Structure formats: structure tokens, C-alpha cells
């Protein structure tokens, strides 16, 4: 808790979980955090060995923040917290997600048994970010990708929240497309199979009163 217990610390780490980002990108993905607080959190996480600062090579030549190997190991902690927290009856699935949090949610909520034997590549394109996902051996690998090559499926939407009614609400694809602006390119039967791999755990039973 001394390392990640302060407000925003774990969220900063979450945003870096799929690759390095500039200071401005981290702040844009975390509405409500001030530049001062973000600077403090980044400095403390760097001192703790959770992340490092480095310069991207030319022509970019900008400073980015990146998790260390130890920092990336915290994804297992985030997944456990994610599976635990969504069981709350107060969990609101309509609250906005950042692109990274949506991708990490898919990595957390995939059913490995259902995914066994399925091999495919999937692209996700949102207004501010894009990702390439590879499903193999029951595991879903996801990385930030700006130059996405040929894939089996492509999901496009302005906001990552557009995919939630389809992946977790199990609503018909055509209905979700009409309501959210989600666009799916590729075999729609395959899209249904892929979306069927993800489901939220059951809500916790409240104690009798």
C-alpha cells in the first residue's frame, strides 16, 4: 500500500500497462488529475522502481514513462481486483472506460476454457488509441498498435464503452451498432464467437436482513 495505495497511483500504472506514454497522454486519459499530482505520483513510482523515464529515438525525441518488468507484473493484481470489484451490486458498467482499461478488462474477463482452440487476430480502433490483439492457447495478448495489418476482425468506435453492451451485455450486434456507433468488420459469426468468450462474474449475494 505504501507503493500503490495513494489515489491515482494504480490508475497511472494501469494506463501504462500496454506500453509507454507521454505525460500529456497519461493526463488526458485520467480526467480530474492535476499536473502537480500526476508529477508527484510518477516521481514516487519511479523512485519505487515501478516505472522509468526514457527518451524515444528520433524523429519522436520525446520523453515517455514506461513500466519496469516488475511494474508490468502488477497486471495480475489489477486482474484480481477487477474480478472482485465487478461483483459489487453497485458496479456501474455504463461509466466511461479509457481505451487501456477496456483492453485490460478483456484480458481479465476472458474465459480460457471457451477460448481454447481458437486462434485469431483482432484490431480495436478508438478515437484516441488503437490496439492489436492475438488470441492463442486460451490467452489474449494485446498491444498498442498504430499500424495495424490484416486481422480477422476489426472493432471500431469513438469510445471503448461502445463494445461493452456487445461483449458483456450479450446484446445482438446489429442492435449495439445502431445504438452506439460500433462498427465491426469481418465475419459476424466469428465476431459473435469472439464476444462470447467474455463475461462478468456473478454479483455477490447480499446478506439477509
TrEMBL record:
Residues 1-93 form the HTH hxlR-type domain. The keyword Ligase does not apply. Keywords: DNA-binding, Transcription, Transcription regulation. SUPFAM superfamilies: Winged helix' DNA-binding domain (SSF46785). The keyword DNA-binding applies. It comes from the Bacteria. One of its GO terms (molecular function) is DNA binding. Pfam families: HxlR (PF01638). This is Transcriptional regulator. It comes from Croceicoccus pelagius. The lineage of its organism: Bacteria, Pseudomonadati, Pseudomonadota, Alphaproteobacteria, Sphingomonadales.
